[in-house]
Write a structure and sequence with these properties.
disordered C terminus; about 500 residues; alpha/beta; disordered N terminus; seven-stranded mixed beta sheet
Length: about 500
């Protein structure tokens, strides 16, 4: 077949080459055509990332009624679901956790270009660590669209999407528009001002610079506050959220969104640099070989290394608590009557201004503790006194242990008064006691019992996210910002232990 005939065979009715039609329809084909030296079939992790990005844009990461997790379906399956009117939910939130230098940020900029080619009405806000990086990301996206064809053997954006162009005179480094649009793209540093614009795609790319920031609680809190107060307010209805970052800390931005009440909204794409140390199997040997992996492992702190290359947050690597037990339903007899022998509570009041009050209500059955309710807050005692009293009344607590250290005795008296005056109840016996033992020693010595004999209701991490994060991230060496949750939980172990010894030895 002649070259002319071969070319003719590869074009569609409109005269476009088949490779352009494929690139228009498929992000991975687009990536390979734009940069074949980087996007290669021998780098399958890039193909997976492209497939996930395209799937979330096309509403193909779905969950049907009764299904727990998200799954990716084909375009044909999505079309059939829509035609049948079958009930399903589409995921619009993506967390990307892939090792550094594996092309994830580059793939995100390619995704933005491809999306603009598909729909020039898309509006993107991309947030990076600082304005310098935001400008670099913005230029990569803008220049990808503006690329000029200097060699006919290369493919550029306008070969595939010939009708999409940057608006003349509106192509600033960090904010620009496409022809026919008022606004298309804004790039900004984390914590920056975002005013006057909204977006259909919001991207946060590597918001943490290093491990020093990753373990600064004030820094993490400020990032999360900016995310909730500023970034989320810019998202339009049905907008896509993408967070791409190294998971240093379970309290980082991804850790927070996965632990809050909407955590189930997120699809997590997580890949480790080394897939199997025994066989030396690497995610992408071309970009990061086994030899390089071992060199870095030998030179870096193990915890920092595991966070960067194996996607294990540092604080979880050294976490004291490795696992927690859960229950789907409370113990009942054959007739459905509750088998709980007693409902009790343990309260650790906030001793200092930056402490958290932690109150845990639990049911006792067969020497096991079943958590019924948790209040974990840094609010003032004037607020928590009412909340704790209401919890005791609602859950029919018969015995409440309240630490009387510092302001604890006054807190206990206030709760007792509120129960009598507001709820007309003297059902709850409030036991005030002084806790003088070493906190870290208590927590560590009772950790095994806590993991083996305290049961949390299924989904507890979404119900009490701050408490969950405090428990999951508490360090084995005791070096942790807030220890109020482990301290209070340890109190349950100690009280249950006293009861157990009384029962055993009479």
């Amino acid at each position: 077949m002649s070259l002319a005939a071969e070319y003719k065979a590869k074009v569609n009715n409109s005269g476009r080459p088949e490779k352009y039609r494929k690139a228009e329809a498929d992000l991975w084909e687009y990536n390979k055509l734009i940069n074949p030296k980087f996007f290669k079939e021998t780098r399958p992790h890039l193909k997976v990332l492209a497939a996930v990005l395209q799937a979330i844009w096309e509403h193909r990461i779905i969950k049907r009624p009764g299904e727990n997790g998200w799954r990716i379906i084909t375009a044909g399956e999505k079309e059939r679901l829509d035609e049948q009117g079958a009930e399903h939910e589409s995921c619009r939130c993506l967390a990307i956790d892939i090792p550094p230098r594996h092309g994830k940020s580059y793939d995100l900029s390619q995704f933005c270009d491809w999306v603009y080619g598909k729909n020039r009405e898309e509006k993107v806000i991309a947030v990076t660590y600082n304005d310098t990086l935001a400008g670099r990301f913005s230029v990569n996206v803008r220049d990808g669209i503006e690329a000029t064809k200097a060699d006919k053997s290369f493919t550029v954006f306008n070969d595939i999407f010939p009708d999409v162009h940057i608006k003349y005179g509106d192509s600033a480094k960090q904010m620009w528009s496409l022809e026919g649009q008022f606004f298309s793209y804004l790039g900004t540093g984390f914590g920056g001002t975002i005013t006057g614009v909204g977006c259909s795609i919001g991207i946060i790319d590597d918001p943490i610079k290093n491990h020093l920031e990753a373990f600064n609680d004030d820094f993490l809190d400020s990032q999360y506050q900016w995310y909730t107060d500023t970034f989320l307010s810019r998202l339009e209805e049905d907008a896509i959220q993408i967070i791409n970052m190294t998971r240093w800390n379970s309290r980082d931005l991804v850790g927070r969104v996965l632990a809050d009440e909407d955590g189930g909204d997120w699809y997590v794409l997580k890949m480790k640099a080394c897939l199997n140390e025994a066989t030396h199997e690497m995610l992408c040997p071309e970009l990061f070989s086994w030899k390089s992996y071992m060199k870095k492992k030998a030179k870096m702190s193990l915890a920092i290394f595991m966070a960067n290359y194996q996607q294990e947050p540092v604080d979880l690597v050294n976490a004291l608590y490795k696992d927690f037990k859960e229950y789907d339903s409370l113990p009942v007899d054959d007739e459905g009557n509750s088998l709980l022998e007693e409902v009790k509570s343990y309260c650790d009041t906030a001793d200092e201004g930056n402490d958290f009050l932690c109150n845990i209500v639990y049911g006792v059955y067969n020497l096991e503790a079943y958590v019924l309710g948790i209040i974990y807050t840094d609010q003032d005692m004037s607020v928590t006194e009412d909340e704790v009293a209401a919890e005791y009344y609602r859950l029919h607590v018969s015995w409440a242990d309240i630490e009387s250290n510092n302001g604890g005795r006054g807190f206990a008296r206030a709760v007792e008064r509120i129960l009598k005056e507001q709820y007309h109840s003297n059902f709850t016996h409030i036991e005030k006691f002084f806790q003088g033992a070493n906190k870290v020693a208590r927590i560590k010595s009772n950790a095994t019992w806590v993991q083996e004999h305290i049961y949390y209701p299924r989904g507890w991490k979404n119900k009490w996210p701050e408490y969950y994060l405090a428990m999951k991230s508490y360090q084995a060496n005791g070096n942790k910002g807030h220890d109020d949750a482990p301290d209070c939980t340890t109190g349950i172990a100690e009280k249950m232990g006293i009861e157990t010894n009384d029962w055993l030895y009479g």
